[in-house]
């Protein structure tokens, strides 16, 4: 039996949610900052929060603040970013679902997935949870030689067994990662370095399509206006071409998803607290510049088999990572050749082929 991945109209789930919430839920309390020394050997140590400057762990009553005067920024230029993207390019079978479910039950202790073989959303979740296993297998590190760790705010990092590594090398061997999935695309962003640095990474995607299908683009943009600031909405609606309007909306939403996940915020975060001024390459949170961030933006087009049809799906993707530079940096990747050095594309069959090796 084949199970279809295309969601029905009105489908529920995190990737279809409209985030129509007035603000952050009160139970998500701000985390107290920890002190971290500067990496500049000639500078005097200064108290510095682990979370990026200007972005404390948000609370409903706590606005974002700029970094304190004289604070030293920690430059994180030595943490290369890698992204894995998996295309759900065809339907799946119950046998394939069962194989993925068994791997996750065995190797992913931190997550509990309800057994629902007929749920496409459950299959997306399972195969996305397998991406860190594939990444570590690609590095030829056995499953028994690493553990998946998690912060109180849900940020993941992988800690390898120290074995013969020197203390310095061991400290630099931590791998921070973030997972996401939407429709036919599953993704993981990761980087390697010290734990305090690598956890500040997030990835966001937004399919370039209206919901519900067949809706007018202008109507769809208006339905998403609660996620946008007045400036963002103006930058989208001043363009009269539907395709460009939809792409601009998707880029902004993907950037906001990536950023709020990089700082460890819940799904109910009020997107309108953030503003991405794409033409001027500026990012603002609660009226303050978001400094020290690197934002990467790229587009993915997938060929997907659905029943007896082959369709194309386009996604705008964004990755956010805190590097501690003076200003935030936006990098747009317009061509496939530019992605080849840091984005890895795979499909369902390639993942299923290595399942016997993932638990080794």
From TrEMBL:
It is an enzyme of class 2 (transferase). GO terms for cellular component: cytosol. InterPro entries: 4-PPantetheinyl_Trfase_dom_sf, P-Pant_transferase_sf. It comes from Hypsizygus marmoreus. One of its GO terms (biological process) is lysine biosynthetic process via aminoadipic acid. Signal peptide: none annotated. PANTHER family: L-AMINOADIPATE-SEMIALDEHYDE DEHYDROGENASE-PHOSPHOPANTETHEINYL TRANSFERASE, PHOSPHOPANTETHEINE TRANSFERASE. Residues 44-55 have a biased composition (Pro residues). Keywords: Transferase. This is holo-[acyl-carrier-protein] synthase. Residues 30-68 are annotated as: Disordered. Its EC number is 2.7.8.7. The keyword Ribosomal protein does not apply. It comes from the Eukaryota.
